[in-house]
Amino acid sequence: MKAAVLATLATSAAAFTGQQLPTTFQTKSSTALNMAGLFQQSLKYVPCIPVEQLPKPGTATSGVAGGLAICIAVDPSGSIYALGDKCPPVNQPLSFGKVTAGAIEDPVLGTKFSLKTGEVVGDWCPSGIGKLLGGLFEPVGVPVFPVKKSGANIEVQVDVNAKANFESQYWSGILDAQGKADGKYY
């Protein structure tokens, strides 16, 4: 217990030492969507939200496309963007963020992500608690997806096999309910 308190105090002190972080970062995608799996990648446009649920300019909403959580953001000029709906480093919904010209801001930690590339724009985790948490993690971006209006839906291009590939690795090495380490049944 004493070690945990000491570690917390040390990281708190390090977060407020006045050390300046660079304003631009080399970021990489933080998702498991890039991992290889059993199924070949299959990019397809799939419905995410109905057009009538499209948010007002300057706001965002959440949807699901191909089993993936998607943030649909509309910038102040009315352009539509699709990004992964999980903000690094703690995975709160990006769809709760404020949309500005070219970026969306993490509602809790304050990090801004480019609507076009998903990369970090400006400081990494600049808010109060963000300074503490952000120092523990490398700056990473969010995935972006092609998006289009099609009939009564907003469609997002995703790998429809991404969820299956992620789940195919889930049971690897863990005993399942049947007691086998490979996830197969008797």
From TrEMBL:
GO BP term, pick one: nitrate assimilation
Lineage: superkingdom: Eukaryota
Domain Rieske: 45-156
InterPro entries, alphabetized: Rieske-like_NirD, Rieske_2Fe-2S, Rieske_2Fe-2S_sf
Record GO terms (molecular function): 2 iron, 2 sulfur cluster binding; metal ion binding; nitrite reductase [NAD(P)H] activity
Key words of the record: 2Fe-2S, Iron, Iron-sulfur, Metal-binding, Nitrate assimilation, Oxidoreductase, Signal
Signal peptide: 1-15
Entry protein name: Rieske domain-containing protein
